[in-house]
Structure formats: structure tokens, C-alpha cells
Recover the amino acids of this structure.
């Protein structure tokens, strides 16, 4: 059976329209697929970026924690070192002071400092000065002369064999205790001074 030209034309119209719609649908599908692919790639890049940022943040946090831990360890080690050095310092201090009392120059400075304190703190009356053994007569004479010049009174000088080092200068009810026992009595001030010396020595030793 042969188709009429009208039927043939209708078939061609229908099939042409179907092809056009198919091609249009295929183009839309390809466009949508391309869009989805772009979005997927963009999301993948964002995900990688977030992962990298997270990794960097975690690394920074770990580094900060390690630095804090190291600083704490250093501080605790310094505290332990200070404590050990203080113990050694307290043990060595009496012997060191006795040795200073035996040396002419350091003993003279020791006595002069005590006298300066007494001149500031004590009334200008006759003083009673108690001293450890080992203070030569010429030094005692020079000391007494200076006291007389400052107070107008000759001091009473008494040697006390129980004292290991130093002197006390006393008026009625008031005294300057510059003996070994008196000097080491204030552990708080001396401990602070020892620590300052320890820190100063550590700073000088650090290259």
C-alpha cells in the first residue's frame, strides 16, 4: 500500500518533531549533567579545603599544646632546681659567713655595716657591743673610736665565745643583731636574695 503525499508529510512532521524534542531533551540532560558535575567538583574542592583547614587547625592545636607542656616542664624543672640550690645555699651559708668573719676585709665591711645600722636606729647613749672571737684589738679600737665620735660615749666591748661570727650592738631594750644567728634568722628575705643570686648566675651562664 502506498502512502499518499499528505500521509507521508504528516509522518515526516511527526518524526521530525519527535527528533527535535529528543535532541532538546538530550541537550537539557547534557547541560544538567554538566551542571551537576561542576557542582560535584566544586563541593569536592570545598571538602578538600575544609579537610586541609581542619588538618592545619588540628596541627596548630597540637603544637600549642606541646609548647604549653614544654613550658610547664621547664617551669617545674626550674622550681626543682631552685629548691635544690636553696637547700645547698642554706647548708653552705653558715660556713661561708664564718669564713667572712675570719677575713680582715670582709669582717671590716661586716662591722661597718652593723655600725651604720646602729647609728641610724639606736639612741646615742653608751652601747654594749657583744662580738664573736677573732676580732683583732686594733679593729676593736678603730670601731670604738668611731662610736665615740658619733655618740660621745665609749662602748662596752664584750667577747662571747658562743658566737661563731658577727656582733650585736645594743642600747637599753634595742639592739642591732649582726651575728651569724641573727643574719640567717630571716629565711624569707635571705631565701629571696639567694634566689636572685641563683637567677643572676643562671643568666650569666646562658650563652
Amino acid at each position: 500500500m502506498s502512502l499518499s503525499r499528505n500521509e507521508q508529510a504528516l509522518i515526516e512532521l511527526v518524526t521530525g518533531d519527535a527528533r527535535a524534542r529528543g535532541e532538546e531533551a538530550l541537550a537539557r540532560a547534557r547541560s544538567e549533567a554538566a551542571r551537576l558535575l561542576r557542582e560535584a567538583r566544586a563541593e569536592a574542592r570545598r571538602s578538600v579545603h575544609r579537610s586541609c583547614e581542619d588538618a592545619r587547625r588540628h596541627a596548630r592545636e597540637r603544637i600549642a599544646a606541646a609548647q604549653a607542656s614544654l613550658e610547664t616542664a621547664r617551669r617545674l624543672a626550674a622550681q626543682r632546681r631552685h629548691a635544690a640550690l636553696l637547700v645547698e645555699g642554706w647548708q653552705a651559708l653558715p660556713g661561708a659567713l664564718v669564713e667572712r668573719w675570719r677575713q680582715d676585709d670582709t669582717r671590716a665591711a661586716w662591722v661597718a655595716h652593723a655600725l651604720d645600722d646602729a647609728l641610724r636606729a639606736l639612741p646615742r647613749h653608751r652601747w654594749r657591743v657583744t662580738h664573736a672571737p677573732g676580732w683583732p684589738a686594733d679593729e676593736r679600737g678603730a670601731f670604738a673610736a668611731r662610736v665615740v665620735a658619733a655618740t660621745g660615749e665609749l662602748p662596752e666591748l664584750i667577747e662571747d665565745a658562743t658566737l661563731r661570727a658577727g656582733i650585736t650592738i645594743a642600747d637599753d631594750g634595742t639592739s642591732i643583731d649582726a651575728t651569724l644567728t641573727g643574719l640567717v634568722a630571716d629565711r624569707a628575705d635571705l631565701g629571696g636574695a639567694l634566689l636572685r643570686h641563683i637567677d643572676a648566675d643562671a643568666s650569666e651562664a646562658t650563652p
User: Anything to note?
Assistant: Helices lie at 5-102, 104-121, 137-151, 180-183, 187-205. The chain has a mean pLDDT of 79. The chain is about 75% helix and 10% strand.
